[in-house]
Design brief:
The structure holds two protein chains of two kinds.
Chain A (H helix, E strand, L loop, with lengths): L3 H8 L2 H32 L10 E8 L6 H13 L6 E5 L10 E4 L10 E7 L3 H5 L3 E4 L8 E2 H6 L7 E5 H7 L9 E3 L5 E8 L17 E4 L1 E2 L7 E5 L5 H15 L3 E8 H8 L1 H35 L1 H9 L4 H38 L8 H25 L11
Parallel strand pairs in A: 4-10, 6-11, 7-9
Antiparallel strand pairs in A: 1-12, 1-13, 2-12, 3-4, 5-9, 7-10, 8-9
Chain B lengths: L1 H17 L1 H29 L10 E5 L20 H8 L6 E12 L9 E8 L2 H5 L4 E4 L4 H6 L3 E4 L1 H8 L8 E4 L2 E9 L23 E4 H6 L19 H6 L6 E5 L3 H20 L10 E4 H7 L5 H31 L1 H9 L4 H32 L7 H4 L6 H27 L3 H7 L1
Classes of the chains: A alpha+beta, B alpha+beta.
């Protein structure tokens, strides 16, 4: 189809054409960036936890006043919790994934270092790797005789543990390309710890140090007790989680009625709350995109209808001169395609500009090139769908219109 | 003029009815656009507001570099709170008219026999100046005194809510509560007080939290070795420590606030802080030059990013969306007005001035704006009541439809539509009567 008559007719309606182009351009820019932001958020929400998330529940309890017999009470609690039907394993931990707590330590590779190499999360708790279901990919889990009491070590540093389990991401960061087993890290000048095992992943409780450090985690073989920890974590089956949570809270309350249950949730719930902002943002953007596309489509329908109405007579003349219905239909479709193309071209430039701003102020990565053709395609499609109605109406104008007054 | 405006309004409304599809499109676009903007704005307004407008420029939080350039936050920003040693030093130097140190604590309130379960209470360890500095309203009693601070009195100020729970809302001053196994004498009961954002504790909170249950003496909390129930940021190596080691460590957890009434006082406090840091350098405790900050409430909120990137981006996205809706409206109004070129030609030929045509079409656009605004209002009300789907409950609670939001919604809708109508109305006013009359 010859586009010259379409172009010359568009030039006579510069403003309307310009408005349509502008609308498509802005829509294109916002939709490209919004879709990209959604994908970023969704990806973040999928972040690997490295644990058996669907099988875990936590119950957090706090006791009143000082606990001289904390170790004995902890043992009694654990024993009672273990007897709850459906509980496969249980332990007391100082912190858990997705709880925004942050117990970290600086790590050195050499005791003479002035500054630590990096800052990593430290998980404490008896048999924590097994209870959480973290996957060992090298080495071994801790032996029973390697565990010491966190409370004792707090009073006497010489009772601190001598071995440690690291995540593969942390191992790769500390010793790129090497076998981490048998390597030593220092958490202080006098506390060397030897790596005996590597887990595939184990997410830090808080991502406040940045998502790229999400897996910088150490597991340390120390038993927590109620005077230094409060998170009971229980492993069960996905179906029995609710029942186990209820039974665990009741059991703990029965053992010590003067205790406050601060929190009782499944690990899935904790993850959901942890990524609440990301989900909210993705939801908001989906809503905005949907309404935006609807508004833009209706804008195109409105303007196209106006044009068709305005050119009733010309259409009649063309039909009288031998143009087929198909010719008329194609005319409006091509016209829309041209306008959409210009709009998309400008919109891509806008989209790139907005992305540069977002990269600068919100640390968003660069917009992948794939978004440009996909964005273009969807807007072309939107334009064609929107113009179809008015174009069909134009094609239905009978040749006899030519003889009528405008 | 008034009479003709009324007539134009009537004409406008009639014209809206003549073209229901086009009108509906415009009203919808304006309605959606304005509603999206207003919903996100209501959240933004809630989180970015000044929580203590009359004093925000007199309250400052001093920051000291106790970590050094190697360990500091990005851009060599010093830690966001103080460690024990520096907090004590600032507390004992009377360099400001009023000052308080504070940190959040959590204690269990023992029932007094009638209740079955102990309850968990969140509080702050603060100095006696806290209440006057932050304009905390008392229902019964008053704050403890500065002497009490020195004597580490077992005094406590409780919230109206805790007072309701423990004493059924009665005047409980002079009575005793047991918290964490220790007895405290109630000296004051507050009226409801929960400034949002919680500007005085942005170190441990994101700025939004439930009302605080009690306030105890900072000095006494330290005596009892009550650890912070909140953020505690340390540099260097993990050591398994007791309280004494903890207080001497690099960990920061205490938020300081000072009240400084004039620029001269601010300057002199700044000098004091610099001198203090310089003295620490001479003493060999800091191996770096003084690096201090003295931010007031709004600067502090800005630095701590109380307004999350999420709410900022949503506002920008919503405004972009509104802009598209307006472009859309310009196009539709143009279509609508130019369709009536013939009618305009007749009116002009019969003696209507351009100004009158202009007025008529702007008023018509205003009517569209009003209708869009009403739709927008409905959607805003719906949206504000369901923002908790999107935002965290403690923030969602702050977004509400009040008089100012209602009027702003309508105003923005009408103003934006009229603005969008300027060009279409100008085109309408410049219709050549002769042309139109000839062609029809």
């Amino acid at each position: 189809m010859d586009v010259r008559p379409i172009l010359s007719s568009l030039l006579r309606h510069k403003t309307t054409a310009l408005l349509l182009v502008l609308e498509i351009a802005l829509t294109c820019a916002i939709v490209c960036n919004a879709v990209f932001m959604i994908s970023q958020r969704l990806q973040r929400m999928q972040m690997t936890g490295g644990i058996a998330e669907t099988e875990l529940v936590e119950v957090q309890s706090a006791s009143i006043g000082a606990l001289p017999d904390a170790k004995a009470r902890t043992a009694a609690d654990l024993e009672a919790l273990r007897r709850i039907p459906g509980v496969k394993a249980v332990t007391l931990a100082t912190q858990l994934p997705f709880t925004n707590s942050s117990w970290n330590t600086g790590i050195m590779l050499d005791p003479t270092q002035k500054e630590s190499t990096l800052n990593a999360t430290t998980y404490f708790g008896e048999n924590l790797v097994g209870v959480l279901g973290a996957q060992l990919v090298a080495g071994r889990d801790f032996n029973a005789d390697e565990y010491t009491d966190l409370g004792d070590a707090q009073k006497d540093p010489s009772k601190a543990s001598k071995v440690v389990i690291v995540t593969s991401a942390l191992a790769e960061r500390l010793w790129p390309g090497q076998n981490p087993l048998g390597k030593t890290i220092w958490m202080g000048k006098d506390s060397p710890q030897q790596v005996v095992g590597v887990v595939k992943a184990l997410i830090r409780p808080s991502l406040s140090n940045g998502d790229n450090t999400a897996q910088w985690t150490l597991v340390i073989p120390m038993r927590a007790s109620l005077d230094n920890a409060s998170d009971y974590v229980l492993r069960t089956t996905p179906e029995q989680r609710d029942a186990v949570i209820k039974a665990a809270a009741a059991t703990l309350h029965k053992i010590d009625p003067h205790r406050v249950i601060l929190d009782k949730k499944s690990m899935s719930q904790l993850r959901e709350e942890f990524f609440h902002n990301d989900r909210a943002m993705a939801g908001l953007l989906v809503g905005v995109i949907a309404v935006l596309l609807v508004v833009t489509a209706f804008g195109i329908v409105g303007l196209a209808s106006f044009w068709v109405a305005q050119r009733h007579r010309q259409i009649g003349v063309r039909r009288a001169l031998g143009a087929t219905r198909r010719n008329i239909l194609h005319y409006f479709q091509t016209e829309n395609f041209l306008l959409a193309s210009i709009g998309i071209a400008i919109g891509m430039a806008f989209a790139y500009g907005i992305n540069l701003l977002l990269m600068r102020y919100y640390e968003l990565p660069r917009l992948p090139a794939l978004y440009f053709p996909v964005g273009a395609l969807s807007l072309w499609l939107l334009g064609q769908l929107a113009v179809l109605g008015p174009a069909l109406r134009a094609a239905a104008v009978p040749p006899v219109e030519a003889t009528r007054a405008a | 003029m008034i009479a003709t405006s009324g007539y134009y309004l009537k004409l406008g409304l009639r014209s809206l009815r003549r073209n229901p599809a086009l009108t509906a499109l415009m009203v919808m676009a304006i309605g959606f656009g304005v509603a999206a903007s207003m919903i996100t704005y209501s959240v933004f307004r809630a989180v970015s507001g000044n929580p203590i407008p009359d004093k925000s420029s007199q309250l400052f939080t001093p920051q000291l570099d106790s970590w050094g350039p190697q360990q500091n936050l990005p851009r060599n920003e010093p830690p966001e709170a103080l460690g024990y040693v520096d907090a004590m030093a600032l507390l004992h130097a009377p360099a400001a008219k009023r000052q308080t140190m504070l940190y959040p604590v959590q204690l269990t309130a023992m029932p007094d026999g009638k209740r079955e379960l102990p309850l968990n209470a969140n509080g702050y360890a603060v100095g006696s100046d806290f209440f006057a500095m932050f304009e905390v309203p008392f229902r019964y009693g008053s704050s403890w005194s500065a002497q009490d601070d020195d004597q580490r009195a077992a005094d406590i100020v409780i919230s109206d809510e805790l007072n309701q729970k423990l004493f059924a809302g009665a005047d409980s001053t002079g009575r005793t509560v047991n918290l964490g196994g220790h007895d405290y004498r109630v000296v004051g009961v507050l009226s409801h007080w929960n400034p949002q954002p919680r500007f005085y504790d942005l170190f441990s909170t994101s700025g939004f939290a439930e009302q605080t249950d009690f306030y105890m003496l900072f000095t006494r909390a330290l005596d009892l070795h009550i650890y912070i129930n909140g953020r505690n940021t340390c540099r260097g190596q993990l050591s398994y420590t007791n309280w004494t080691d903890y207080t001497q460590s690099s960990c920061v957890w205490i938020t300081p606030w000072v009240e400084l009434d004039s620029a001269a006082e601010v300057e002199s406090y700044r000098r004091f802080l610099t001198n203090y840091a310089a003295n620490q350098q001479h003493a060999g405790r800091f191996n770096w030059a003084p690096n201090i900050r003295l931010r007031d409430v709004m600067e502090w909120m800005d630095y701590e990013q109380v307004v999350s990137p999420e709410s900022r981006i949503s506002l920008v996205v919503a405004l972009g969306f509104f802009l598209i809706c307006l472009v859309n409206t310009v196009g539709l109004l143009l279509a609508k007005f130019m369709r009536r070129a013939g009618e305009i030609g007749v009116r002009r030929a019969l003696g209507a001035t351009r100004g009158e045509i202009y007025a008529q079409y702007l008023i018509e656009a205003g009517a569209v704006g009003l209708a869009g605004g009403l739709l927008g209002l409905l959607l805003t009300a719906l949206g504000v009541s369901s923002v908790d789907i999107l935002f965290k409950p403690e923030i969602a609670r702050l977004a509400h439809l009040d008089f100012s939001l209602v009027s702003l919604t309508l105003l923005v809708a009408i103003a934006a539509t009229v603005l969008a109508a300027f060009y279409p109305a100008w085109r309408a006013a410049h219709v050549q009567p002769a042309w139109q009359l000839k062609s029809s």
